[in-house]
Amino acid sequence: MRVLLAEDEPKLADRIAARLSGAGFVVDVAHDGREAQFLGATEPYDAIVLDVGLPTIDGLTVLESWRADSIRTPVLILTARSRWREKLAGFNAGADDYLTKPFEMDEVIVRLNALIRRSGGHASPALRCGPLEHDANAGRFTLSGEVLELTAQEYRILAYLIQHQNQIVSRTELYEHVYERDTERDSNVLDVLVSRIRRKIGSSLIATVRGRGFMLADTHADE
Amino acid sequence: MQTRTQTNNPCATKTAPSRLLGSLRARLLVTALLWIVIAIPVGGIALALSFRAVVAEGFDDRLRATLLMLIGATEMTPDDRVTIARPLGDDRFDQVYSGWYWLIAPEGDTPLRSRSLWDLPDAQLLREAGSTPTLRTFVDASGNEIRAIAQRVLLPKRTRPVTFIVTGNLEQVQRDARDFNRLLWLALITSGAGLVVAIVIHVAIGLRPLQRVAREVEQIRSGKLSQLGSSGLSEIDLLVSEVNTLIDHDRKQFERSRENAANLAHSLKTPLSILRATFEGAEHAEQREQLDTVQRLIDRQLARSASAGPRPGITTDVEPALHAIVNGLRRVHAARQLEISLECSPNLRFAGDGEDLEEILGNVLDNACKWARSRVVIATFSKAQRIIIRVDDDGPGMSDAEATRATERGLRFDEHVAGTGLGLAIVSDLVEMYRGRLTLGRSKIGGTRVEVELDGASATA
User: Fold this and answer.
1) What is the CATH number of domain B311-458?
2) B435-448: pLDDT as tens digits
3) Where are the domains of chain B?
4) Is A91 on the interface with B (CB under 8 A)?
5) Is the overall model pTM greater than 0.90, yes or no?
6) Does A114 touch chain B (CB under 8 A)?
7) In this structure, which topology does domain B76-170 adopt according to CATH?
8) In this predicted complex, what is the ipTM?
9) Which CATH number among 3.40.50.11190, 3.20.20.80, 3.20.20.10, 3.40.50.2300 corresponds to the domain A2-119?
């Protein structure tokens, strides 16, 4: 899952980014409103963490501009002001959730996972596809109850695929959501990673759709 | 702080003792009545006395004229005796004890008397009579008050003087005075009463603009008005514009301090966030606990300094604020399929600041949503100048002890869901500031029922 973190305070931004990466997210950091506005409008993020008090353009204006451009990426706003007036202004601008500073890092991860799950139309906290189950808050997959050993990149690919299960995910899309911006793209790497994952979870769960991409689906359920 | 102490005792002016002269109306009325009570009897008495004097003077004039007539009608007979040439033409001189008498007393001769006079004339009167008419008042044998005129006259062809006396019954004078007095007092009392009514009306009209201002100030306090209206009267409008300036100044000052509080919050929160992020992990439990305390204190104090409290002239529509918060919470809890039902009676107005209402509603509803299993039921209605916000959830509910602790100062009763510890404590602070009531209890749908009672009303009127 790829997220944008827009936070102007560098130390705080570093800490949040580090925790998010540790939890399996691919994180781009924007340090001011203008940069955040541009990235949010051009990159396909799965969720955005947006500080309200950004320099150059304030967070709520940035959010409004995204919503005006029909960018529906779920947004979690961070606000130093705990008044409901500010929270309501956030909702009005199009925020999906808020966190008041200071906050627990774990809380950011829980909220982000919930937002991403919800935007994929999934209601229950644990995503399931046949024997495969994803616990986003714990940052792990289980196969028939056994915890899977996955590398960071494998985890990201599988998390994106299970979020979009039963849909064809193109290589470009997968690439955009599991790698940071400006990474050199080599689609062979993706194929190698997917075949490694297949070896761990069984080849029947991930199908390669020729010329279009990959699809995670519980094929046994259809039979 | 300054703004809060000011609002602590807003009822002080309402409970002014109703002493006599403790009101402008009473003063005006009492002074006017005092004047009426003094002036009308004094004027009446003066008028009655002077009328009586005039009547008495007229009576005396008539007696003098009668005396002259009597003298003129007197003739001497050839045998040097006194006789009446012609009757005086007044029946009363013929009626016994009528009080109207005449007497002609020639010295050294038998006196002539009117038929009405049976007794002998007053000897003293005879003695006192001089060459000019003498007037005296006395009471006759039958109890009549009598006015008498006496004159000693030297008739022609007669050497010894003749004393003439004419008396009249003063009863008529008294009757005239009585009649006049009756009329006089009737007129005076009528005009006095009219004057009292006129003064009461006058005072009422005169004080009406002041009463209107007082009513408007009261409405500003209870939040139905935001500014005093112009009365079109120069004296009152001076006061009105001063009060309006004061209200405006007060508002601006508060906005400034709220802005300062918000800025302080902003500048404190980011370093706190960094500290919190730095002290992650089990080995820093002690530091995190300290940070929690700092954060709680800051949040509580900031919440307090940012709250407006009851302020003159400010009211808020409950429904839009409630809808905005419910919409926000529906979004936050979208993943949980929480059923939030809202029953808001229309046109409810809270007698206070919008941000404070949002704080109260936000924290109460947020708390209910966090605890609820699947349902939150919100009902708002008005009851006797109060608005009641009732929020039920079907969560685990609270024990009585927890309910008591939840609203206590500075206590964090909820350790499980981040960020809610202060919610109800902040609500409790705000509700107290607005002299409202916060009650926690068991809900019929299984969880907690939070009921907030605040000043306000249904604004249908």
Assistant:
1) 3.30.565.10
2) 899 888 888 888 88
3) 76-170, 226-306, 311-458
4) yes
5) no
6) yes
7) Beta-Lactamase (3.30.450)
8) 0.72
9) 3.40.50.2300
